[in-house]
């Protein structure tokens, strides 16, 4: 039974159409606040030697979202969460390694996630989880002088993919029709 349940959950997660068939909304549906978190560098020394910085990453992503109508706000200036407004975090994470030939290799990831509490029966104790709504990652390599631009270019492409996924997940805007008042015949 546990294997079947795990397989069913995995199938639903890998096949978004299956979730829609059951009446579930897509993960990014009606999200009103997207908070761009500071970049995570598990090896800050390697990232720094390759020219990567939090400011550079946040600037590149901010430029990618400019003019898209996507509700992205940098974490440093974000307003507090509001009741009734779905909020997720957009987190860039870059694992960087400097090779012997002074080339930089980075695993670049951008994910949309949020913390949540769930209760899994039969235990009534809530568990803290991280809900992952969207993620994209890739590996890039370049010399040290060009690595920051290479990483920024990849993140901007990821931001464009996220923008597309976000738009697809939103409800269609229904046209507003002004009520017509019939003329009274005399």
Number of domains: 1
DSSP helix count?
5
Question: In this structure, how is the largest beta sheet organized?
Answer: 5 strands, mixed
Stretches with pLDDT under 50, minimum 5 residues: 1-21
Helix amount, in percent?
25-40%
Mean pLDDT: 86
- Physical arrangement of strands within the biggest beta sheet: 2-1-3-4-5
Radius of gyration from the alpha-carbon trace, in angstroms: 22 Å
Structure classification: alpha/beta
Outline, from the CA principal axes?
extended
Distance between the termini: 75 Å
Please write the string of helix (H) and strand (E) elements.
HHEHHEEEEH
What is the number of E strands? 5
Strand content: 25-35%
Structure, explained:
- Helix 4 (54-65) packs across helix 5.
- A hairpin with an 8-residue loop joins strand 4 and strand 5.
- This protein is extended.
- The model is unreliable at 1-21 (pLDDT under 50).
- It is an alpha/beta fold and 186 residues long.
- The protein contains five helices and five strands.
- Strands 2-1-3-4-5 form a five-stranded mixed β-sheet.
- The longest helix is centred in the C-terminal third of the chain and has 23 residues, at 147-169.
- It has one domain (39-169).
- It has helices at 2-14, 16-21, 44-49, 54-65, 147-169; strands spanning 31-36, 72-74, 86-98, 103-118, 127-143.
């Amino acid at each position: 039974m546990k294997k079947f349940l795990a397989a069913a959950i995995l199938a639903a997660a890998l096949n978004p159409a299956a979730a829609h068939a059951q009446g579930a909304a897509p993960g990014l549906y009606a999200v009103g606040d997207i908070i761009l978190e500071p970049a995570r560098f598990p090896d800050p020394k390697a990232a720094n030697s390759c020219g990567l910085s939090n400011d550079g990453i946040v600037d590149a992503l901010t430029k990618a979202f400019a003019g898209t109508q996507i509700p992205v706000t940098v974490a440093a200036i974000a307003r507090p969460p509001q009741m009734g407004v779905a909020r997720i975090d957009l987190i860039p994470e870059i694992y960087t390694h400097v090779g012997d030939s002074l080339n930089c290799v980075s695993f670049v990831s951008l994910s949309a996630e949020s913390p949540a509490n769930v209760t899994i029966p039969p235990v009534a104790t809530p568990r803290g989880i991280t809900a992952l709504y969207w993620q994209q990652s890739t590996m890039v390599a370049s010399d040290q002088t060009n690595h920051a631009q290479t990483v920024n270019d990849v993140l901007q492409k990821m931001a464009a993919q996220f923008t597309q996924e976000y738009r697809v997940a939103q409800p269609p805007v229904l046209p507003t029709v002004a009520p017509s008042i019939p003329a009274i015949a005399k």
